[in-house]
Amino acid sequence: MPVNLTESKALVRRYYDEVLTARNRSVLGQLLDSSFVSHVSGGSDVGAEAYAAAVDATFAAFPDLAVTVHDQVAEDDKVVTRWSATGTHNGDFVGVPASGRLITVTGIHIHRVRHGRLVEHWEELNMLGVLRQLGASADLDGLPTCQPLIQFPECYVLADLVLLAA
User: What's this model's pTM, rounded to 2 decimal places?
Assistant: First the structure.
């Protein structure tokens, strides 16, 4: 059965629009396959439950998070999205207390789609740039080293912004 690239892009777009920007957390459960795995550069692979916890932590740290999709390209079973997000740092984030600062982050995600669900996710973004915007650059050595996500869920956040500060 051939992959419908338009449908795959629309499915991924729902993640940014409905889950992240509109904060409709219940949609995340509809989008993620039970076998979902997220691969974050420099971090450990995590499943759907840990990924959902990261989204929750992101919402707590950046309650006004807004994501803009700039480009999407689809081929075979993968959708690549170039995006940016802004949000006010009103909660703890990777050990940095709320600063009230508006931050902007850009990123690129690759999602793999199967049978109308998200089954895999890869992410690249500039975590150091985010930490600098939060005012943490002067003391990066004082931030927690995020090892197992289960022990430190605050290390895997920022909406998919799903970040690891390792």
Answer: 0.81
